[in-house]
């Protein structure tokens, strides 16, 4: 039971890493009129899940977890660098660093010591810190991946609810609908070979680049 409780803590919106302050380009997509309705938000988030989260982030998270399990600092550094290099815009790269640094500061206070050889990887991306904490807290990889998917989806839907804007009930309906595809995406992600680990979301990259100079904004990305 305790590993499950630790997972809930790791993916909680109350974890002080600032996840709620990022929209990953969604704020500009809404400003530009690309996303105006609940249906369009659902389509946007489904595309990002299918072509980035499940093909890049989740496979990398699994590799970071295995690197921690085998105390392989070289692989931890390689995959954290790979993920960082896969971010197409300055804002998305800044988000990786900022969330990584925030979690790296928090983990020692939660009794998760960070080996010196891991420090650079954890500063680069939050996923490295999540992988280390999950390994130390004996959270199984499948549970970690499910938790990460849910956390990403919940944060993204809540950003859309604020920005479109939508009602809270519509937000819960989106969570209910989109969560139905998560099990298949997780299975796909965990079977992805190294050569296929990549994201392909050009609309998100364009929106993120435009967001860098958006005049009025609520979110950091």
Word description of this protein:
The chain is mainly alpha-helical and 221 residues long. It has one domain (2-13, 20-211): Urease accessory protein UreF (Orthogonal Bundle). It is 68% helix and 0% strand. Helix 3 (38-69) crosses helix 7 (126-136), helix 5 (90-109) runs parallel beside helix 7 and helix 8 packs antiparallel against helix 9. The mean pLDDT is 96.
The average pLDDT value, as a whole number, equals 96
CATH topology: Urease accessory protein UreF
User: CATH superfamily assignment?
Assistant: Urease accessory protein UreF
Q: What is the CATH architecture assignment?
A: Orthogonal Bundle
Please trace the helix and strand order, writing H or E for each element: HHHHHHHHHHH
Computed Rg = 17 Å
Count all strands and give the number: 0
Shape: globular
Which structural class fits the helix and strand makeup?
A: mainly alpha
The unreliable regions are none
What is the highest CATH level, the class? Mainly Alpha
Helix content: 55-70%
Major sheet description: none
* Binned strand content: under 5%
Number of distinct helices: 11
What separation lies between the terminal Cα atoms? 36 Å
